Structure formats: structure tokens, C-alpha cells
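Human: Cast an eye over this sequence-structure pair and say how the chain folds.
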Amino acid sequence: MFVERYFTMSTTLDARASERARPHPTTAWLLPLLRRLHFYAGILVGPFLVVAAVTGALYVFTPQLERAVYADALTGTVSSQPLTLDRQVETAQRAVGTSESPVNVRPAIDGGTTRVMFADPALEAGESRAVFVDPGTGRVTGDMTVYGTSGALPLRTTIDRLHRDLLLGEPGRLYSELAATWLWVLALSGLVLVVLHRRRVARGRRARVSLVPRPGEANAYRRTRSWHTATGVWLAVGFLFLSASGLTWSAYAGENVSQLRTALSWSTPKVATDLGGGSGGSDGSGASPADEHAEHHHGHHMAAAAPGSFDAVLETARQAGLEAQTVEIKPAASDGAAWTVSENERSWPTQVDSVAVDPHHLRVTDHVRFSEWSLPAKLAQWAVAAHMGLLFGLPNQLVLLALAAAIVVLVVSGYAMWWRRRPTRSAAAQLGPLPPRGALRAAPPWLWPVLALVTVAVGLFLPLLGISLLGFLAVDLALAALARRRTGAAARG
């Protein structure tokens, strides 16, 4: 009974609001349509956005958290005569109790330790066993399970998975994709709503209030709305960036993005490891050494590598022009393939060049330079690095923290506005009314198929957007049916 009374009241208020309003022909249908879409998305998707924002803000500070939590494993001894890389790898092999070569080695830098990663069939896909070796003393400082080609430590892996799938595995990824899918819709619809509203008000102070918070406003609803609107307008570009870059990691939309990039030749180039040369080949692992999503891939277990000298291969790569401090050395899976050495400096300026080295003849068989990447591939690399807080260091992290906090403020203030619009004279506990229905009936008939085609196209490219939009429509139709039934019962009574 409460639900029926609530939505009957909402329908009555909607009708009265429609009678009072006489807007421009375009805004007559577009403004209420966007209001209703913005409302449903904010109310129903808001909790997912809050979780994604909080866990994402935590993730961008994992480099600092890792250095604090794993200080013993990550801190090495500075020595004028450090052990050779081959000796460090042998030390790690003895610690693991294997004669097999590692699948990835990250040499120590700036007083750190060398990270030697081994394949382990007992671990989950994408995981490897990492042994940390002090290059100054040869002491093993740590032994733990790491994730991805870059060897993300357990704390970062846990926070990353919490942000990506709530530790629920593949089904949990639907939550983060839903949040990223609707974030850009909320940002754009909010901007258009502000523009349309400003066209309907007089010039001067009233036309500027939507862009400036009013903390001194006596009316609680208007005060909250001023903060909600100003925050959304000034940070809309940041929200659009988070949505676009976040979707590239998603399960369904991300696959469509990858196919689009491949079709347009925007993919990240890879070094060829077949010892025949030529860019665009595979390194045998299924991911480019400079793959912008390498830390987040659920890849297959990597195979054991062919024997060779890590020191000699690294020196060959250095002579070929790899100058970044942070590099990764990936031995080949067989004698008939080359090793790869890749730079992994994703800050600005970005250094992610990679080379393929014949370990037997110590010659470079392929070289992929970041300067030669296509512009879309570079933009994708920078976007993902910025999304992870890596591109500009601490300033990048602080900007992401501000965006995450703003998302929480917007969601909470959205719920607060809905609550503060509730009828205060009613004895029953009620929420505020919904935005008016029937917006499309005011639109020109020729526009209906255009809107339908655009909606279907976007829904196919972003499947969760299309499915959830159908869910919103089903909820809306159900609420309308309840309201009509209640109104008919009241009329008969």
C-alpha cells in the first residue's frame, strides 16, 4: 500500500508540474527525458559507483602502501660490486629448488631488490612465484605470490581485484563494468541538464548559480543541489576520462573496444620473437611487453624458458637503446625464439620500448619504439597509466583521489536531494517524487526511430548499458502500472 500511495502521489505531482511548465519545444521532451534517465541511473547505479570510487582511490596509492608493507622484501643493499644478474637468478633458483629458468626478471634499481618470477602450476592463472634477491649480498629477502607480468605484490593484487570484481571472480566484474558504463552517461546527461536549465532562466546571478556552490543557502534542498551541480559540471571531463579508460578493462565492453582498436590498427605493437624479425609479432605470452593492461590480465601460466645469460641479454638491449631504469627480461619459451627486454616506465615521459634478443648470438632481432607507436596506441597507453595514477606520480594520484571523493559526494548528495524533496506534511514516511513521465510523447515522431537506433547501437557496443537500460524501463513501466491501478481504484471508490 505504501508503494502504491507513493507513486500515485508522484504521478499527481508530475501532472501538476507538466501543466505549469511551458518550455521550448525541444526542452519540452529532452529536459524531462534526461532528468528521468539521470535520476534512475543515479539512484540505481550510485552504490556501484561509490564502491568503485573508494576501491579505485585505494588502488592508486598501492605503490606507497607496498613500499611500507613489503619494505623488507623490496629493500636491498647498495654495493659498488653487486652480484651479476645471472648469480642472482641462480640464488633464486636454489631458493625455489628448481633448475628451470624464470619467466620474468626485473633487475634491482635504486637500492631495491631483484624480482625473479617463476611459473608454478599450483597457482592461479596470471600468478607466479617471485623470489626477491638483494644484489649486494645475494640474500633472499622475500618469497611470495605475485600477479601479472609486472609482478604486482599480494596487497596490490587484492586491492586491484577488490576494485575490479569485489573478489568474486568473473561474475563480480559486472559491478565495475556497470559503474564505468553509466558514469559517462551520468556526466553527459548532467551537463546537458545544466545547459538546458540555464537557457530557461534569466541572465545574471540566477544563471550562474548552477556553476557555483551556495553553502549559505537557507533552503537545504537548493544548497545540496548547488554542490551537486557545481561538482558535476567542473569535474565532468574527469568523470568521462575515468569511464572511457575504465571500460577498456571491462569484460564485455572491453572486448568490443579491443576489437575496434584491432580493426582500426590502433593496437599496441609487439616485438616478434621468432628470430625472423619484423614488428607486430607475439612474444609468446599472449600480451605485449608494453601492454597497458599487463598488470590486470588473467593470463595463462607462462612456460619455462630456454637457458641463456641474463646479463648478456640485458647488456645487448642497453646497447640497442633501452635506457629506462625499470626493465623486464622475459626468456623465450623455447630455443627457437628470442628473449624480450622491455622498458616499464609508464610515467611522463613514457619509456616502454622493447627489443627481442637472440640469446645465442646476442643480436637484436626486433625493436619496437614508443616513438613509433600510432597516436591512438600512445593515447591508450597514457590513459591507462593516468587511470592507475602512474603517469604524473603524486599529482596524478591526488587528482584521482579528488575525482573519487567527488563521485561519492555526487551520489550521496543525489540521494539527499531525493529525500529532501519528499512531502513533509504527510504522516507516512515518503521519498521525493520522480521526474515527470511521458517525455517522448512530446518529441517529434520522426525522432523516435533515431533515438531507438542510437540506443540499440550504444547498447550493443556497451552490453551492460543496454541490459540495465531495459531493466530501468521495466521498473518504470511497473511503477506506472501500479500508479494507474491505484488511481483507478481511487476513482471507483
